[in-house]
Write a structure and sequence with these properties.
Elements (H helix, E strand, L loop, with lengths): L3 H40 L13 H14 L2 E10 L2 E10 L2 E7 L4 E7 L2 E5 L2 H8 L5 H8 L5 E4 L4 H6 L5 H8 L6 E9 L2 E8 L6 E5 L6 E5 L6 E5 L15 E3 L9
Parallel strand pairs: 6-12
Antiparallel strand pairs: 1-2, 1-11, 2-3, 3-4, 4-5, 5-6, 7-8, 8-9, 9-10, 10-11
Helix pairs in contact: 3-4
Length: 261
């Protein structure tokens, strides 16, 4: 009887130790599984994306340009530095025209283009200085009639050539999306909740472009070369209503201001 009692008491302790080891093993395996899952997500940042993040920088850019060209519309905002001038853009662009505002240090004007018809709306001071940096009294008087009105600009006028480019989707995007120098694929990122891949030119000195990894590989943000501004692109493919201004809001441009080649 005395020999049996110790054996009987040891068996439950052994069983408890084995159960404890099994529980610990399960906990370790569960933790390891979570760790491996996390590591797997970090190792494959392109999981669940459109796949362009796995391509070379040149192929990413090619697909991005094709997506931008194929889209019916886009909303462009940001800053452009050209020479001594800085422009703030807020333009909605479609294949048949565009609308929005352009601001500089000294002025702000609205643009509306439908097919070949271009309207510009600005204050009197803007129009007075279109013909001369020091406008005459007659120029100022004529400009006062255009203040706050939509002015339809003839297509042969220099003002048309000067401002219509802000409303032309494909030519403007061709200019904005240019990168200068050898391309390299940069880091994955996130822009306003959208996963992105970055393409850099000349190690960033020639500009950087953030491309969407969700849906179509549209460009979302451009840092222009030489600190020439940052531009953002949104609302790709969304409908843009382009409507002619009411007749009582339109003034004929004529040849009184800004005419000439």
């Amino acid at each position: 009887m005395t020999a049996t009692s110790p054996g009987t008491s040891r068996r439950p302790r052994t069983t408890r130790r084995r159960a404890a080891r099994a529980t610990a093993a399960v906990t370790v395996c569960a933790g390891l599984a979570l760790a491996l899952t996390a590591c797997g997500g970090e190792e494959d940042p392109d999981a669940g994306t459109n796949g362009v993040g796995k391509l070379s920088a040149a192929k990413i850019r090619k697909k991005t340009l094709a997506a931008a060209e194929g889209a019916k519309s886009v909303h462009v905002t940001g800053k452009l530095v050209s020479g001594r001038s800085t422009y703030e853009l807020d333009m909605q662009l479609a294949h048949n025209g565009g609308k929005g505002t352009v601001s500089t240090k000294d002025t702000r004007f609205s643009l509306l283009r439908i097919d070949r018809s271009l309207w510009v709306k600005a204050d009197a001071d803007f129009w007075a200085h279109q013909k001369d940096a020091a406008p005459s009294k007659n120029d100022s008087a004529a400009a006062a009639k255009l203040d706050g009105k939509y002015v339809k600009v003839p297509s042969e006028d220099r003002t048309y050539r000067q401002f219509s480019g802000f409303t032309e989707k494909d030519p403007l995007l061709d200019t904005l999306l240019s990168l200068h120098g050898s391309l390299s694929r940069g880091a994955h990122g996130d822009l306003d909740g959208t996963r992105t891949i970055r393409v850099s030119a000349a190690q960033g000195n020639g500009g950087t472009l953030d491309v969407s990894l969700e849906g179509e590989p549209f460009p979302l943000r451009l840092q222009r070369a030489g600190d020439a501004g940052v531009v953002r692109f949104a609302d790709w493919g969304k409908h843009i209503a382009l409507e002619r201004p009411a007749d009582d809001q339109v003034v004929d441009y004529g040849e009184s201001l800004g005419s000439g080649g």
